Amino acid sequence: MNKKILLTGFMVMLSMVIMGCENMNISGIDDISDNLISAITTTELGLDAWRNSDDALDMNGDRKIDALDYQLYLLENNYGYWKDSEEALDMNGDRKIDETDHILFLLYNNYLYWFDSDQAEDLNDDQIIDETDHEIFVYYDTWFNSSDALDLNEDGDVDVEDYEIFLQYQEYIGEYQITNYVYEGSEYYALEEDGFIFFTDLDTYLYQITIEVTSIGEVIVNIPDGVQETLGSITEIIMVATNQMTISRISPLLTVIDTEVTVNDVLVNFTLYLEETDNGFTTSYVMGFYGDNPTIAFDIVKVD
Ligand SMILES: [Ca+2]
Ligand SMILES: [Ca+2]
Ligand SMILES: [Ca+2]
Ligand SMILES: [Ca+2]
């Protein structure tokens, strides 16, 4: 395989990694199989008994069932518990906190409760009622009155269409850097282009690259002049490739990024698998173009 293609693929992969997950679900909401009738009895239980009951759920979607889930469960299912908590607010502005406010709390925090209520409607006009409509129900007004409310699709109006674009990209917006680079393979392997960079030394260059994601999902890769000189003609190809990437979630834990780029008249496709971390993503990449399959791994962290 042509060295330029290999190098391009590698660099494109680096610059794509940060795009990460596209899932905008409110965490945990869709996990709730709430049953308010059985809840009347189980809200009287302590944490351990609840955890062993059929009502035990991972309410916040962090893949464990613990005291925090029990608290969230009680807030939704036990009016007295909610009323005594910091979550008890006058949601409808009638200057008292009562059952009506608790129902509003449920509508906002429990997708299935909202879905079964007369509040559920197709707010984005895509002919289905789903989590996106619930998210619009919960957050649209706040967004509309915030500085984030911009005409993102540039059609002259600020409306639900713009909010959907905002939802699609909001969790990526920001600036990222590459850290924790680890290379496992021969110390003699190197990128050879206009310059010459050993994989063992690649971190020096990677750590200087910053990647910015805008509110409409544009990816801007900033490569300092010195690094651009070292990469030579590859720099421009990287930019072309990052403009063509697509992102799709294939499981709650895994996101796939695909792109393609033409190098020396050869169309090359790339697929990269990303795992989310607390502050970004982590990925590893097997360089199959060497017989002994050296690997690189690194993290992409958000810096603002
Ligand atoms: Ca949990
Ligand atoms: Ca009220
Ligand atoms: Ca809809
Ligand atoms: Ca618009």
Describe the 3D structure.
The protein has helices at 3-16, 36-42, 47-51, 67-77, 79-83, 99-109, 111-115, 131-144, 160-169, 202-206, 225-231, 234-242, and strands spanning 174-184, 190-192, 196-198, 210-213, 219-222, 246-249, 254-263, 266-277, 280-286, 295-302. The chain is of the alpha+beta class. It has 3 domains: 3-24 and 177-302, no CATH class; 26-118, no CATH class; 121-170, no CATH class. An 8-stranded antiparallel sheet has the order 5-4-1-10-9-8-7-6. Strands 2-3 form a two-stranded antiparallel sheet. Strand 8 (266-277) and strand 9 (280-286) form a beta hairpin. The protein is elongated and about 70 Å long. Residues 15-40 have low confidence and may be disordered. Bound molecules: calcium ion (4 copies).
Topology:
Elements: H1 3-16, H2 36-42, H3 47-51, H4 67-77, H5 79-83, H6 99-109, H7 111-115, H8 131-144, H9 160-169, E1 174-184, E2 190-192, E3 196-198, H10 202-206, E4 210-213, E5 219-222, H11 225-231, H12 234-242, E6 246-249, E7 254-263, E8 266-277, E9 280-286, E10 295-302
Antiparallel strand pairs: 1-4, 1-10, 2-3, 4-5, 6-7, 7-8, 8-9, 9-10
Question: What labels would you give this structure?
Answer:
304 residues, alpha+beta, 3 domains, binds calcium ion, single chain, 8-stranded antiparallel β-sheet, two-stranded antiparallel ribbon
Q: How many strands appear in the DSSP assignment?
A: 10
Low-confidence regions: 15-40
- Whole-number average pLDDT? 81
Lateral arrangement of strands in the main beta sheet: 5-4-1-10-9-8-7-6
Biggest beta sheet attributes:
8 strands, antiparallel
- Supply the number of helical segments: 12
Bound small molecules, by name, code or SMILES, are: calcium ion
Report the span from N to C terminus: 38 Å
